Hints:
This protein is of the alpha/beta class. The chain has helices at 12-24, 35-45, 61-68, 85-93, 106-120, 155-166, 174-181, 190-204; strands spanning 4-8, 28-32, 49-52, 76-80, 98-101, 129-132, 135-138, 143-146, 149-151, 172-173, 214-217, 221-224.
Amino acid sequence: MSKTILVVDDQSSVRQLLQEYLTEQGYRVLTTTDGQNALYLARHENPDLILLDIMMPRMDGYQFLRQFRQERQTPVIIITAREEETDAVLGLDLGADDYIIKPFRMRELAARIRAILRRQEGHPHRQETLRAGGIVLDEGTHTVTVKEQPVSLTPLEFDLLATLMRSPGRVYTRAELIEMLADSGFAGIDTTLNVHVRNLRLKIEPDPKNPRYIETIFGVGYRFRKQQD
């Protein structure tokens, strides 16, 4: 069955271009002009991925993300003409998985979409259950609990946590993590990786300002601390 992509953009030329190209790539494509209509379509059509513009009437992309992330963890790629880094970082803070700046190359966008959808299908060869310090990460069911309480992670946050938990005590440079997460559809830079780490800490750490699990090694990268269960 074809994967469904929801395109949310108030520019008709962008919607038409994406619909035609992605349909040719074999996707089922839905389009709408604002976040309010996008919420309705997302709830009723269950898209596999959402391409989301930021500046739109009625309900903008930020407002959409704030509400949608309370309900579902469907992957979201922000598409925006704004080049300011703070705009992209805010979108990541609100739960977006990635962003791409207009004008973008269609092949690059298609590659990111394919990578993220592959990640959504999981890694058949990885069915581990990772446990450390009260965190249980089950790759088979793609679930995480902290102190037996379920935690809702975005797909990229899940892969990031799994990567760190597989080798507790090992220091990963930011470049290593970016390269390892590329198979998960991540095409970001140091700054965006830092945002995902911060968001992950907010969800799993008892005190995100004094992390127990994910430790920053200044000037190098991150590691998952060895835990005393």
